[in-house]
Every structure is written in structure tokens, then in C-alpha cells.
Protein 1
Amino acid sequence: MSFRSVAIIGLGLLGGSTGLAVQAFLPDVQTTGWDADPATRARAATRGLVHTVCETAEDAVRDADLVILCVPVGAMGEAAAAIAPALRGDVVVSDVGSSKQFVARALAEALPGVAVIPAHPVAGTERSGPDAGFANLFQQRWCIITPPADADTRQVAALSRFWEALGAKVELMDAQHHDLVLAVTSHLPHLIAYTIVGTADDLEGVTQSEVIKYSAGGFRDFTRIAASDPTMWRDVFLSNKDAVLEMLQRFTEDLTALQRSIRVGDGQALFDQFARTRDIRRSIIEEGQDDARPDFGRSDHGRD
Ligand code: NAP
């Protein structure tokens, strides 16, 4: 089986990019879309993010055999409830949310009896809204699909082929494992970036203009991450609470160990740690998940 008509609910960065990617890489597939914000709907129509921008959520999904919810994680349940009455009997409902156990529960509750197969394209930028999307967002990025135990294997295979057609590499994973992995690779780094940028901003004795002027020394990269959408990230931390708190605890312990090495002058421990992390950076570049150039793709490649 393959999908012929895809409805996208939420036409921001992820929804817009999905709509543009379908048009670019699956030209025979029809796309419809809806967003709660009328201004976003108008902008989506002007940019042609989907073939048809509908006036209601129900109109958008009525003929779709695949519906992808591209709204903040905290809005998934509400978005699913809005489309429930108009779904086709053979529809597959998926999403792009950044945490998976919470979304799986919200969708199962709002859509009893519907085939729900959650997914998370690990691709994004710090930008949001209907002007942020681009067709190549998913190229060479991983899309993690977290099928429930009773999922129809043909539907899972069709969803995998869909994301592969948009340029992604697909991995199937248990939702709980996804949340743990993403807590360390994405959620914790965002929390650290939000903290560091906030700390610098609050520092007495260092002016804001100095923070901005001397930002090249590492701080600049944190500001890129800390510029990410506040609604999206509030929802990620609230919905993946347990895994994030567990990783935060581990991180705090490791930070305390580094703090001690600095205090007692244990240069070997610092050197060993920094050498280990350098190897991880090398592996990421070798895997094609980033580029050795310092400013790689900031404008046209996603990573989050
Ligand atoms: P975004 O650019 O802010 O787009 C989300 C859109 O959904 C906004 O236009 C929002 O409108 C709309 N919306 C909110 N509630 C809605 C509802 N109930 N029904 C219909 N539309 C609704 O955010 P995004 O970055 O695309 O993120 C969307 C999802 O992708 C999130 O679940 C996020 O976790 C996931 N994700 C994001 C990234 C990333 O890097 N950004 C990467 C991977 C996955 P308003 O602005 O008016 O609220």
C-alpha cells in the first residue's frame, strides 16, 4: 500500500516542510492542510505549502488516507479530537512530535479504534511558523517511527516508505527508548542552552552588549539553540519529564565531577574527557549528520 492523499494539521516549520517535500518528491500525492491560526492558513496558501489549505480541520482530513499532526506536543490531543469525526475508516494518523510516549497516549485517547502510528523526524531548525518550512528539511535526517505493539505492519511499512521518499532514513523504535535517547541528544542540550543564555543575560558586571559582542567564543552556538520556539520546547519538557529529569541528574553528576577536576587541578581528567567528546564529534561528521565547516547549513539544513 502507499498513501495518495495526505492531510497536514499545523502548517508551521514541520507541517510546511512536509507539505513542500511531498510536492517535491511525491508529485502524485494530493496534499491538504489546516492550521488553527487564520493568518498561518493565509500564508500557507500564498507559499503553496500544500495543494489545498482548508477552512476547517474536518475538511482537510475528509479524503486523506494519511493524516500527519504537526502541532506542538501539548496540542496533539486537541488536534486529534478536532479531526476525529471526519476521518476515513482506512486512515493512518501519524505525527511529528518530539516526545513519543505522551503523544501516543494522547492520540490513542482521542482516536479510539483509529490506526495511529506516531513518528518523529529528527530534523528541524530554530525557526518556526509558515515561512520557516523548506522541502529539503528531511534529507539525510533520521525519522524515528514508534509503532504501537498492535500496529498493522503494512501500514508501518507504508509510513516508512513515505518518509524515505521525502529523503529521510527511517528507524523503528520503542516509544520509551525514543524518549530516553532524545532526552540526551536533543532535550537536555536545549535545556542547557536555555540556561546558559539566560545566565549570561542575568550576569551583573557583564553588559548585554559585551555578551553580544564577544559571542563568537562558543556562546553563539548556544544562542542558536536557545532561540528555538518557546511553545514547542515548553511542551517537550512537560511531556518527556521523566526521561529529561533522569538525564539531568546524570548530567549534574558529570558536571560535579568536572568541577572537582578543575578545583583540584586534575588536568589529565579534563584532557581525557575532552578527547573523548572530540571523538564523538568526529563520528557525527563521519555519519553525515553534520559538516566539519563551523557554520554548516545554518540556513538550509535542519538538525533538531
Ligand atoms: P510551529 O512552526 O510553531 O508550527 C506549529 C503550528 O501548529 C503553528 O502554526 C500553530 O499555530 C499550529 N497549531 C497549534 N495548535 C494547533 C491545533 N490544535 N490545531 C491546528 N494547528 C495548531 O512548530 P514546529 O516546529 O513545526 O513543531 C511542530 C511539531 O513538530 C511539534 O510537535 C514539535 O515537537 C515537532 N518537531 C519540531 C522540530 C523543530 O526543530 N522545530 C523538529 C522535530 C519535530 P499557533 O502558532 O497559532 O499556535
Protein 2
Amino acid sequence: MRKFDDSYRHKGLRKKLMDILREKGITDEQVLAAMNNIPRHFFLDTALDNIAYEDRAFPIAEGQTISQPYTVAYQTQLLQVKPQDKILEIGTGSIYQATVLAEMGAKVFTIERQKALFDKTKQYIFRSKYPNLKFFYGDGFEGLPTYAPFDKVIITAAAPFIPPKLIDQLKPGGKMVIPVDEGVHQRMLRITKLPDGTTTEEAFNNFSFVPMLTGKNGYTS
Ligand code: SAH
């Protein structure tokens, strides 16, 4: 059984990482406070324990990645999270991004298409700490019509286009943060749904994500 230990050393490294994120332009102190409260090394293989607080992405199971802390902070800041916001996340992966949103007091619904990664959520270490975080196995392009509408939608994989069903599942006034493919990289977009159902779009920096794929994958590839 793995021993989870959040030592003073880890806490110190985490605080330093928050300073790096500030230097890189993250200004939302609520985002930084949430990330400072979450032991990122718990979400990684123990072999990566010593480097868990470097500002970089790491491999997790099934050929997927835990996003770089800067990317998590950037997307979360763009999402303008408010406590009690109902948020749909596409791409559970390591559960780190979903945990940041739950720590900020949001009601989080996260979907993963890889069965092996979804199954791991059953052992989620913070299950009792965040009853406001719910896990779903499914195809993110379909969203979660049963639980819609959402205040916010965040996509954490490279989307080939803006999924229309996810726009449908957004409340009027709601926002979506989505990295959309432009070939070699993705452009981070923030879509706002207006009261009349039309949308406006703001474009931000470029990032590099693993692809958002259609359908569910029950088998390891
Ligand atoms: N938010 C994650 C990032 C994981 S990488 C974290 O904090 O660690 C992106 C994840 O999106 C991968 O786990 C991948 O399997 C998943 N994914 C890709 N396409 C998807 C889809 N259509 N529906 C749901 N999940 C998807």
C-alpha cells in the first residue's frame, strides 16, 4: 500500500512553484491558493516524487499526461471559478485539474473515455474530502445531458473543433475554456454563451495537449 506523505519539503517546493506561476503571469490568488493546498505529488507515480513540483507535464497511465501546473493555473484562471459553480470537465486523467476545481468550491462533473483511468478514480485518495467531485466514464463530445446545464465547461485535451453538444449544455452566461487544434499546437479559447444562446469567442496563448478522441476506450491500447 502506497504511503501518502505531504512533508515540509513538499510544501516548500509547492510554495516555490506558486511563485514561478506568479512570475509566468498567473494573477488569480484563489487559483494559486487552491493549487498550493493540493499535494500534486499524490497524483504522480512515486518515482516522480522529487520532481513533482517542477512546472512540467508528466506521463500517467494509458499514454496520457497530467497537465503542466502553468496550464492548469491558466485554464482555471480563464474559467473564473466561483464557489458553487457547476463545472463539467472533459478528460479526468490524473484527477489533478478536477481536484483544483473542487478545492475552489465548485461542483465538478468530470468525464474520462479511458476505462483504465476511470477505474482508478475509485481509489481517489480525496474521495471523502471532495463529495462535490463526481466521476463519469464516457465520451466527452457527448457531455452529460442528464446533469446539464453547467455554469462552466473545461476541456483538458486538444479538441479538433468546439463540440456543439457542450455548447448546448452550457447555461446562458456560461463559459467554456477549450484548447482547439491548429495543427502543431492548440489555441486556448474562451467561449461565452450569451443570454440569446449565441456565443462570443476570445483567443489566448498556444498550448500542447494530448488529443481529444471520440468514443470510449474500454481496453488498454
Ligand atoms: N485533466 C487531466 C489532464 C489529462 S490529459 C489532469 O489534470 O491530469 C487528457 C485526458 O483526456 C486523458 O486522460 C484522455 O484519455 C482524456 N480524453 C481524451 N478525449 C476524451 C473524450 N472524448 N472524453 C473524455 N476524456 C477524453
